[in-house]
């Protein structure tokens, strides 16, 4: 019962406090890949802990305590409507788990199918309007506004406008296209689709809302870092400024340029990578959030199992 | 094969945009045959497809269709770029640099960040 309470409380507290805590993390910009993993792990923990809490509440530890055979026996009894487990309680737990899984699957399918349809329509128009430039390895579109983007998926390609080609030097063009290729190779659209799925499935969870915003931002930082392995950072920074300022300014949208400024500053003044200790701390927090809820839920069962089978050990 | 068909669509649309006047399948075919061997039915099929996609309008003149580009290439491109930028709600579809647009102050801050950097290796 305690495990169920702990998990339930964690889920409630984590959905509200984790987004604030993680959004403050200064190290995220130094290690975007790890920061994305932390956000994903946080989301996973908030998803699994309520389901496991219900499961821990309705499955008595003593059932697990009698060993796997006992658990199977109890399951068999449950399926044949036996008295071993309270069948309604287990039914509720299974229903809760199944509902969460079904909701996520449905929303994931909706997000992915919609994205695929949009990409296909886009690719069709692009094949008529653009021309593939072999030297650049990208599709060039005649358009005055400087823009660069990528179209992921099966026929993935980077796209750049003639406006961008005119306002950027060849080095800067190469740097921008390396950034787009990093998105495509890293399959960043799937990471975004995952974050999009969660907020669509559970729209009022603050953690999921913040996770989508942060993951979208961190993915850009990550692609910059990948591009910076092969291209001088100054070219990336200069290209970012050209692309960000070359478009018609918006007077309606206020706090938009924060990401752009962060990215330019990061490229001009690279921070030290994380120390080994910081990196370990990050990895451990990912592991704890992924495996923690299951471990907490399993503690009563495992201790009952030990008490049941290892009492001789304790007697010695 | 599919890619080839896409190329043909692009080639036909480019010609239709160049003509700036209505053209029949026969007109386009003769134009295309200067560059490549191609069958009348192929061109007809592709132009029919472009009509269904909404890129070509057509009307029947003397029991044959005469086609015309619905809008200019620039208009289509502007529309495609606009939807690309607007599709920020579903970023799984396209990943765009800077969905957000900058205010003049933010743009100035960006330029300033670049200015303080020593111009070595920078070409403007």
Write the layout of secondary structure elements.
The complex is a heterodimer of chains A (316) and B (124).
Chain A: H1 2-23, H2 32-58, H3 61-65, H4 67-79, H5 87-129, E1 131-133, E2 138-141, E3 148-151, E4 157-161, H6 162-167, H7 170-185, H8 188-201, H9 206-228, H10 233-245, H11 258-268, H12 276-309, H13 311-315
Parallel strand pairs in A: 2-4
Antiparallel strand pairs in A: 1-2, 3-4
Chain B: H1 2-19, E1 23-24, H2 25-32, H3 40-52, E2 56-61, E3 64-69, H4 73-86, E4 95-96, H5 104-115
Antiparallel strand pairs in B: 1-3, 2-3
Descriptive overview:
The complex is a heterodimer of chains A (316) and B (124). Chain A has one domain (2-315). Helix content of chain A is 73%, strand content 5%. Chain A contains 13 helices and 4 strands. Chain A has helices at 2-23, 32-58, 61-65, 67-79, 87-129, 162-167, 170-185, 188-201, 206-228, 233-245, 258-268, 276-309, 311-315, and strands at residues 131-133, 138-141, 148-151, 157-161. Chain A has a 4-stranded mixed beta sheet. In chain A, helix 1 packs antiparallel against helix 12 (276-309), helix 2 runs parallel beside helix 12 and helix 8 packs antiparallel against helix 9 (206-228). The longest helix of chain A has 43 residues, at 87-129. The two termini of chain A are 30 Å apart. By secondary structure, chain B is α+β, with helices and mostly antiparallel strands. Chain B has 2 domains: 2-69, Arc Repressor Mutant, subunit A; 73-115, no CATH class. Chain B contains 5 helices and 4 strands, in the order H-E-H-H-E-E-H-E-H. Chain B has helices at 2-19, 25-32, 40-52, 73-86, 104-115; strands at 23-24, 56-61, 64-69, 95-96. In chain B, strands 1-3-2 form a 3-stranded antiparallel beta sheet. In chain B, strand 2 and strand 3 form a beta hairpin. In chain B, helix 1 (2-19) crosses helix 3 (40-52) and helix 2 (25-32) packs across helix 3. The longest helix of chain B has 18 residues, at 2-19. The two termini of chain B are 43 Å apart. The model of chain B has no long low-confidence stretch (mean pLDDT 77). At the A-B interface, helix 5, strand 3, helix 7, helix 8 and helix 9 of A face helix 1, helix 4, strand 4 and helix 5 of B. Strand 3 (148-151) of chain A pairs antiparallel with strand 4 (95-96) of chain B, so a sheet runs across the interface.
């Amino acid at each position: 019962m305690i495990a169920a309470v702990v998990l339930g409380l964690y889920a409630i507290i984590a959905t509200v406090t984790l987004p604030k805590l993680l959004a403050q993390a200064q190290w995220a910009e130094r290690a975007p890949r790890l920061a994305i993993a932390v956000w994903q792990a946080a989301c996973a923990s908030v998803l699994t802990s309520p389901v496991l809490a219900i499961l821990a509440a309705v499955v008595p530890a003593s059932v697990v305590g009698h060993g796997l055979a006992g658990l199977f026996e109890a399951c068999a009894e449950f399926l044949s409507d036996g008295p071993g487990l309270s069948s309604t309680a287990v039914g509720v737990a299974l229903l809760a788990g199944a509902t969460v899984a079904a909701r996520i699957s449905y929303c994931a399918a909706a997000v992915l199918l919609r994205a695929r349809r949009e990409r296909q329509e886009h690719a069709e128009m692009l094949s008529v309007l653009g021309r593939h430039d072999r030297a650049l390895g990208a599709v060039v579109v005649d358009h005055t506004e400087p823009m660069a983007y990528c179209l992921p998926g099966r026929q993935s390609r980077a796209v750049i406008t003639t406006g961008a080609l005119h306002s950027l030097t060849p080095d800067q063009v190469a740097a921008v296209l390396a950034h787009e290729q990093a998105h495509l190779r890293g399959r960043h659209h799937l990471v975004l689709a995952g974050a999009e799925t969660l907020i669509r499935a559970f729209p009022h969870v603050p953690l999921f809302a913040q996770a989508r915003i942060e993951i979208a931002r961190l993915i850009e930082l990550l692609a910059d870092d990948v591009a910076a392995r092969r291209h001088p950072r100054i070219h990336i920074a200069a290209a970012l400024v050209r692309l960000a300022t070359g478009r018609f300014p918006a007077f309606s949208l206020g706090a938009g340029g924060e990401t752009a400024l962060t990215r330019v500053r990061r490229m001009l003044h690279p921070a030290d990578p994380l120390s080994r200790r910081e990196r370990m701390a990050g990895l451990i927090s990912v592991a704890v959030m992924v495996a923690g809820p299951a471990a907490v839920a399993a503690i009563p069962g495992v201790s009952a199992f030990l008490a049941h089978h290892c009492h001789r050990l304790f007697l010695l | 094969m599919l890619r080839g068909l896409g190329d043909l669509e692009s080639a036909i649309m480019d010609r239709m945009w160049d003509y700036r006047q209505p053209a029949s399948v026969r007109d386009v075919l003769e134009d295309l045959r200067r560059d490549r061997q191609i069958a009348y039915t192929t061109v007809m099929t592709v132009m029919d497809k472009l009509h269904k996609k909404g890129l070509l309008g057509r009307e029947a003149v003397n029991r044959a269709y005469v086609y015309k580009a619905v809008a200019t290439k620039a208009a289509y491109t502007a529309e495609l770029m606009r939807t690309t930028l607007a599709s920020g709600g579903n970023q799984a579809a396209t990943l765009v640099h800077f969905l957000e647009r900058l205010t003049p102050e933010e743009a100035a801050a960006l330029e300033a960040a670049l200015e303080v950097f020593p111009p070595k290796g920078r070409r403007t």
